[in-house]
Amino acid sequence: MNRHASLTRTARNLAVAGALSAALLPVSAAPATAAACDAAAAARAPSSSNDVASRNAVICLINAQRTQRGLPALTTNQALTTAAQQHSAAAVQLKWWGPGKDSHRNPQTGSTPQSRIKAAGYCPNPRSWAVAEITYTGWGGSGTPNAAVNWWMNVSTWGHRQIILDPSMREIGAWAQPGSADRAGAGASQAGTYVVTFGRCQQ
Fold first, then answer.
1. Could you tell me where the Polar residues compositional bias lies (predicted)?
2. Could you read off the pLDDT of 141-156 as tens digits, one per residue?
3. Of 26, 109, 117, 148, which is most buried by a Cβ count within 10 Å?
């Protein structure tokens, strides 16, 4: 069983990647959060037969974290979803994620969250915009949407929680890919890889 998660943020065409320094206090997810979403889908790793349900569960769990704190729910955006889908598929195929690795830069193409999101057609000719990306891969008991969102919200100290709860973000794209993006999880059961992209666009 293993976990790997990372994040990056881009604002006004300026890439700011890496850890965000903040003192994070672990906060357990409220039981009501999972109850409002598809509990069965949230507790299963994605597969070819349930990847849509897994993706919807991730979005639902993230929006539940926001709304229970008085923040607006994020609206699904197709361009952000496309960027997340392409990156998660490449990650599982190439398996370059892992401790000390940059999960946001594709080693073959050199693509970054900003370049992928832009190429997918998000927010053309903006007056101002901001985007962010978070990633997660796990297997065994750690490949589920619940595990991914719990890691981002309650375990990671790298700023994932701040991105999920960023009040300026308005849109979301998420993908749940079967399989591990880390070679350590290659062939492991119940593996899942998650990429979630966030955006704000003013045109």
1. 106-115
2. 999 999 999 999 999 9
3. 148
Are residues 130 and 190 in contact, defined by beta-carbon separation less than 8 angstroms?
A: no
Residue type at position 41? A
- Summarize pLDDT for 155-172 with one digit per residue, the tens: 998 899 999 999 999 999
Residue by residue, what is the 3-state secondary structure of the chain? CCEEEEEEEEECCEEEECCCCCCCCCCCCCHHHHHCCCHHHHCCCCCCCCHHHHHHHHHHHHHHHHHCCCCCCCEECHHHHHHHHHHHHHHHHHCEECCCCCCCCCCCCCCCHHHHHHHCCCCCCCCEEEEEEEEEEECHHHCCHHHHHHHHHHHCCCCHHHHHCCCCCCEEEEEEEECCCEHHHCCCCCCEEEEEEEEEEEC
- Confidence (pLDDT) at 35: 53
Give the HSE-up count for residue 190: Cα atoms under 13 Å, Cβ half-sphere.
18
Check the CA dihedral 40-46-51-57 and report its sign: positive
Pairwise CA distance, residues 105 & 9, whole Å: 13
Query: Of the candidates 47, 44, 66, 115, which has an alpha carbon nearest to the alpha carbon of residue 86?
Result: 115
pTM of the predicted structure, to 2 decimals? 0.84
Neighbouring residues of 63: CB distance < 8 A, sequence distance ≥ 6: 73, 74, 172
